[in-house]
């Protein structure tokens, strides 16, 4: 009997399936993944977009849209993003922001902030390629057609349910300071019979109308052909309670040196030659702007300003992403490096997010033609207005998440 029992035990052991081996988490292949756009343009509207995620093995996934702000959510089972950086994904500059990371046990999440309303036209997993690939196709839609997932506000963990959200529109009480550069005895750059001061003032007045139509309060540093000192521009914005300061310019540089819209953010260490040239033109003798730190020790004042910028600088950078992504989607021609740093005086104040937008360079023939084209200006006004309101919604959502 003992021999029979031993034989049965051996047969059972031989016929039993091998113990399960824990499967290694799938990984993203960054070099074979991308966010791309097609079609669109400043006359045709936003383009279609396609997200391709190549993985080391096939995994279950789900895709949906949420609102306030508008985002594409991609949940992936058993995927480890490891050391891959979202900002390095090819095409990441087409949208305001991309984030990814661990979501909950066994799942990772990718969040793509979209510059406007879209719908998921299709989503699928292809396993026949050398490596599995998830493809999500997005098509632009109107605000009325946008259909986010029900209870979108709870799609991200720890956010309040919709009933707990304030009913007031996100733009209620929002103040934006628009700063048309130059003016008065300072006409700014001049070319082709046009002056920078006149062009940016006309644009700023049109942008004010577009923002006010969206419920945004606008503070203008000048409303006519008058000169306002640089430190006074920041003071006017601060006194109005501005949550964002946007300076508007259309400068001139030596032929062939710069063309296309460019966004500048505060960076006193910038060694860009063009930025230095522009800073000299913008600064003149008014190089002290921002909070009044008279009587403070220089080291202490610098430390206080640097501390304040730990909040405002990332918010300025986020606004730049919203603005450049909207311009890209609407086919607005941009500089080869659309976001740059510079030590412009109007960006020096540490107590509010600030950016300087070069609408184009008046010294460039194509840019000057755009600046004087009513159709282009109207399109650019919509782009900037959409970017400001989109950024404001996102900024408020981020502040809400920090409070929670």
From TrEMBL:
It catalyses: Hydrolyzes the link between N-acetylmuramoyl residues and L-amino acid residues in certain cell-wall glycopeptides. Keywords: Hydrolase, Signal. One of its GO terms (molecular function) is N-acetylmuramoyl-L-alanine amidase activity. The keyword Zinc-finger does not apply. Residues 234-389 form the MurNAc-LAA domain. Gene3D superfamilies: 2.60.40.3500, Zn-dependent exopeptidases. The keyword Hydrolase applies. Residues 1-22 form the signal peptide. Its EC number is 3.5.1.28. It comes from the Bacteria. Pfam families: Amidase_3, AMIN. InterPro entries: AMIN_dom, MurNAc-LAA_cat, N-acetylmuramoyl_amidase_3. This is N-acetylmuramoyl-L-alanine amidase. The lineage of its organism: Bacteria, Pseudomonadati, Pseudomonadota, Alphaproteobacteria, Rhodobacterales.
């Amino acid at each position: 009997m003992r021999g029979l029992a031993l034989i049965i035990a051996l047969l059972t052991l031989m016929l039993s399936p091998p113990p399960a081996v824990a499967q290694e988490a799938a990984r993203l292949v960054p070099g074979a993944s991308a966010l791309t756009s097609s079609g669109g343009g400043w006359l045709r509207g936003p383009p279609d977009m396609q997200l391709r995620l190549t993985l080391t093995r096939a995994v279950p996934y789900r895709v949906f849209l949420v609102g306030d702000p508008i985002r594409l959510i991609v949940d992936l089972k058993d995927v480890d993003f490891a050391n891959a950086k979202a900002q390095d994904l090819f095409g990441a500059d087409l949208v305001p922001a991309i984030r990814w990371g661990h979501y909950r046990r066994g799942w990772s999440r990718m969040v793509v902030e979209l510059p406007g309303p879209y719908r998921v036209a299709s989503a699928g997993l292809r396993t026949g390629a050398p490596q599995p690939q998830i493809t999500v196709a997005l098509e632009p839609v109107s605000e009325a057609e946008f259909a986010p997932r029900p209870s979108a506000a709870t799609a991200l963990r720890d956010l309040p349910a919709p009933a707990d959200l304030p009913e007031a529109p996100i733009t209620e009480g929002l103040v934006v300071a628009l700063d048309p550069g130059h003016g008065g005895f300072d006409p700014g750059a001049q070319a082709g019979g046009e002056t920078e001061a006149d062009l940016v003032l006309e644009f700023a007045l049109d942008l004010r109308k577009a923002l006010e139509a969206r419920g945004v309060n606008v503070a203008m540093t000048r409303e006519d052909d008058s000169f306002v000192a640089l430190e006074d521009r920041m003071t006017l914005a601060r006194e109005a309670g501005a949550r964002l300061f946007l300076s508007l310019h259309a400068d001139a540089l030596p032929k062939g040196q710069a063309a296309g819209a460019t966004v500048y953010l505060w960076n006193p260490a910038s060694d860009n030659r063009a930025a230095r040239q522009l800073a000299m033109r913008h600064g003149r003798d008014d190089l002290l702007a921002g909070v009044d730190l008279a009587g403070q020790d220089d080291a202490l004042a610098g430390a206080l300003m640097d501390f304040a910028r730990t909040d405002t600088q990332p918010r300025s950078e986020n606004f730049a992403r919203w603005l450049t992504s909207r311009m890209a989607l609407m086919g607005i021609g941009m500089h080869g490096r659309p976001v740059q740093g510079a030590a412009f005086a109007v960006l020096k104040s540490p107590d509010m997010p600030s950016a300087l937008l070069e609408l184009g360079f008046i010294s460039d023939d194509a840019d000057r033609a755009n600046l004087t084209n009513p159709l282009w200006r109207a399109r650019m006004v919509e782009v900037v207005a959409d970017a400001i309101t989109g950024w404001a919604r996102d900024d408020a959502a981020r502040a809400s998440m920090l409070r929670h």
